[in-house]
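Follow-up to my post from last week.
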Amino acid sequence: MYQWEIKIPKKIHDTKFFGNLKIEVIDKGICSHCGTCATICPVNGIKVEDKPIYFPNWEKECIDCGACIKVCPRWDYKPLNGIGDYLEILAAKSKRFKGQDGAMVTEIMASAFEMDLIDRAIFVGRDENWKPITSIVKDIEQLFEETIRGTKYSFADVMPRIKEVVKDYRVGVIGTPCMMSGVRKLQQESGIFNNIKLAIGLFCTENFYHWQLHEFLLKEKNVEMKDAVKTDIKRGKFIVSLKNGSKVSFPVKEFDPIIPSGCEVCQDFAAIESDVSVGSVGSKAGYSSVIVRRENAKKVLDYIFEKEYAERGEVNIDAIQKLCEFKIKIHPYPPKH
Amino acid sequence: MKVEKVEFDALSRIIGHLNAISVGVKQAIKPERITTEYPRERRKLPDNFRGLILFEKDRCISCFRCAFICPANAIQMELYDNYYPSIDYSKCIFCHFCVDSCPTTALKQTKIHDVAFKDLDEMVVHTDEMINPPELLREDKITVEYKINGKLVLERKREVEDLIVDVIPVKRIEYHSACVNPQNCLGDALCALICPTNAITVVEEEGRRIMKIDTAKCTGCGLCVRECPTKTLGLVRREG
Ligand SMILES: Cc1cc2nc3c(=O)[nH]c(=O)nc-3n(C[C@H](O)[C@H](O)[C@H](O)COP(=O)(O)OP(=O)(O)OC[C@H]3O[C@@H](n4cnc5c(N)ncnc54)[C@H](O)[C@@H]3O)c2cc1C
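User reply:
Got it. Predicted complex:
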């Protein structure tokens, strides 16, 4: 005879748990689209696509276990902010890889493979229209592919893909701050997610639905995303570098109408809950700023510098701090309107 | 050079004719045919002949080993009352790795090599057909065997050979389901839903869900272990 027990969270509304999540998070517009609920949903009902999170036919198919609300970073939401705890902040540039900035994200993951810390890593590639396509990477070779590196300013289904590998492999995950919070919540709820051995957070102000970004660029800026070779945000400007060598740039402010409401209540710029956070702010062009937060990540960085896979640059912590504060200012919670 | 006409004398002509007639008479009475008259006759095959694969459900422990080892990816496990193999004979290369790797001799080799399928779809022998195979129709009355003693001869015996080679079943190791990682449990109760013998129960009380495994009721089928999304459950050896 075996006996054990599980706590069930409290419902706010007298409907199934997914119904509660829907009313309190999704329909209220504070869902970050991180997809953590879909990662844990035991019946694989919750869908992460290029539209708000949904669960077709949930009234019937949700088994009312409550796992989704237990892991949702926006259930009973208390925004995280600031630069967070860290062991070290540095700027660096990978010598092996090319990336959005210093390709340190790719470098850290590649080195984690080399150190045999992980067996699988979840990366975000893209199609020709810059729609994110997540892929599960098994070895370093795959990281040299061009579409796998660099930033895609659209929601990706990184979290649900964890489910495919976490039962059997040690996993590395890259994601926005909300996803990092999701990873921690998953680890609190079930030991199986301790197989996530490395969580790399990206600095983030806002993310977009792909179709809205695509439509905006086409209608407002006459830019076809399939002509783009890089998208970037630098000094408050969104910059699209095109195949013909020209650049289109405009203030990020113009995106206001298409900012997803879930991002507007987020104050976590520096991915506080990651093992290591990487961003462009705070270092020179071509370098990534790296906030090392936990021992596992520290080991990887020590390895990188020991092997001379990357070179260091100068880091400006104040600049990062400033953006952390800026994000609190532009994203008040509870929202003003 | 010129080819000369061979002349036979009268005597050798008579002998030649008599010889021919005697061979004719001999073959008419006791023919020395070395082809098998299939399907009336069936060639005797060695015991390790790799033919159609039969399945005995009661021996199967749903370990998936056959499906994993199959180099042609011909074996899929299908859910019946547990997961059992199906075989796609359009892919099977008759290597019998599955038979060899089966730890409980649930998969058995046979000497059946003459199966007819109507189309490619029919060549997928699904689990229910593996469990209830079609009846074997046999027209053969005679078993034949090739022998070489100086010359090749075919030996015919009026007997019908058993085409299914039985193997002695191994003693099964008994398992039962156990909660090996309680800290992984989500309380989703999928295990209780799939358990065919209601050995797993979930009771909901204010604010908590109490999960129980009654190992006496558990048959060790392992369905719950497979269903659990978080590796909370595992199979452990039954004591005694
Ligand atoms: C939506 C978003 C907003 C960002 N906003 C800022 C910002 O305001 N300020 C700032 O300093 N930095 C921001 N960044 C981070 C920055 O763009 C770079 O990703 C970071 O500096 C790492 O650069 P790198 O050269 O080290 O990464 P690389 O080595 O190029 O690797 C980047 C990795 O990020 C992953 N990735 C790309 N797009 C996504 C996505 N949509 N979701 C999840 N993972 C993804 C890919 O797997 C890729 O491999 C943002 C990133 C994202 C995804």
